UniProtKB/TrEMBL annotation:
This is tRNA (Guanine37-N1)-methyltransferase. Residues 79-326 form the SAM-dependent methyltransferase TRM5/TYW2-type domain. It comes from Natronoarchaeum philippinense. CDD domains: AdoMet_MTases (cd02440). It holds the Pfam family TYW2_N_2. One of its GO terms (molecular function) is tRNA methyltransferase activity. GO terms for biological process: tRNA N1-guanine methylation. It comes from the Archaea. SUPFAM superfamilies: S-adenosyl-L-methionine-dependent methyltransferases (SSF53335).
Length: 328
């Protein structure tokens, strides 16, 4: 079939395929082809392919569709992929087991199937899991060219925020100083460092910080990253007036740390403030809290406000990108 493709020299083929796959651009229904020293990698959305790649059209063989869990079950289950882990969210244990068995039987490259057994809880933001297949909640997740080792039994990580993290990373300049106040395993901090920024990240979960350090090394940015285990409020005095950009991804309680964020902010700082609010006024409470903490020391400008995702019925997970400029 005629398909849009990225044409690339064979020696750069795997590197290019991985980059396109991390951006969810590789077409799964068409085979990759090779000819005359080039690879032809089919893509699902040619308009989304970065300009650095050469786009062509080529007649490619269709790929036989592997058997997926939906083919086995007769319905499309709700699944979430994280590396070689599949996550289900089922209250009915029998249905959860049925889905897990289908996942294992299918062509998905999966080692572990987990079912959520509790909500996120505690200061370290972990949850309980029922292990339906496999024996480990540890995996490596790939996202926009970065790799993150994570153990879901000991730390929080959501692949659903990949697009949002990439949105923030794309704004970062090489000479920036970035402070991630709730860094986890580094999904905001590592891409920031990869773009050349100097990054400091804190988290109260010591195991998450261990993985953050390993992930900085895994991605070749350890020399630009400082990972601190502990409450950001204790680390803040050393970095007063330091940050050009601050990430506050703790949406249930980030407002409690706004005084610390203001102390960290340089004279011109962009704050990424994450919040969960009712759909009737998703941005107002966050903006009001930021203004109360930052004014009159800083001039406060909301540069962008957008919904990241739906969180619960009538509740939205939102982000406000807020510029803080010190008043003279």
């Amino acid at each position: 079939m005629d398909a849009p493709c990225v044409r690339v020299a064979r020696e750069r083929g795997e590197e290019t395929r991985r980059a396109l796959a991390d951006a969810d651009l590789v077409a799964e229904n068409v085979e990759i082809d090779a000819a005359d020293g080039d690879l032809y990698i089919p893509v699902v959305d040619p308009d989304a392919v970065p300009d650095e790649y050469e786009l062509v059209h080529r007649d490619l063989p269709e790929r036989s569709t592997p058997e997926m869990p939906a083919d086995i079950l007769g319905y499309d289950p709700s699944l979430e992929r994280l590396g070689d882990i599949v996550i289900v969210d089922e209250d009915d244990p029998e249905r959860a087991r049925e889905i897990a068995d289908a996942v294992v039987e299918s062509a998905l490259p999966v080692e572990t199937v987990l079912n959520r057994a509790s909500k996120i809880k505690g200061e370290t933001r972990v949850r309980d899991w029922d292990v339906l297949a496999g024996d480990s909640a540890e995996t490596v997740h790939r996202e926009y060219g970065c790799e993150f080792a994570v153990d879901l039994a000991e730390m929080y990580f959501s692949p659903r925020l990949a697009t949002e993290r990439h949105r923030v990373a794309e704004q970062i300049d090489p000479d920036e100083r970035v402070f991630d106040m709730f860094a986890g395993v580094g999904p905001y901090a590592v891409p920031a460092a990869e773009r050349g920024a100097t990054v400091v990240g804190t988290d109260v979960n010591e195991r998450a910080i261990d993985y953050f350090r390993k992930n900085a090394e895994r991605n070749g940015v350890a020399d630009r990253v400082t990972a601190i285990a502990g409450d950001v409020r204790e680390a803040a005095p050393e970095y007063e007036n330091w940050a050009d950009r601050i990430v506050m991804n703790l949406p249930h309680s980030a407002d409690e740390f706004l005084d610390t964020a203001v102390a960290l902010a340089s004279d011109d700082c962009l704050l990424h403030f994450y919040d969960i609010q009712h759909e009737d006024d998703p941005y107002g409470p966050g903006e009001a809290a930021i203004r109360e903490a930052a004014e009159p020391e800083y001039e406060v400008t909301v540069e962008n406000a957008h919904t990241v995702r739906s969180y619960a019925p009538h509740e939205l997970n939102v982000c406000l990108d807020v510029r803080l400029v010190a008043n003279e």
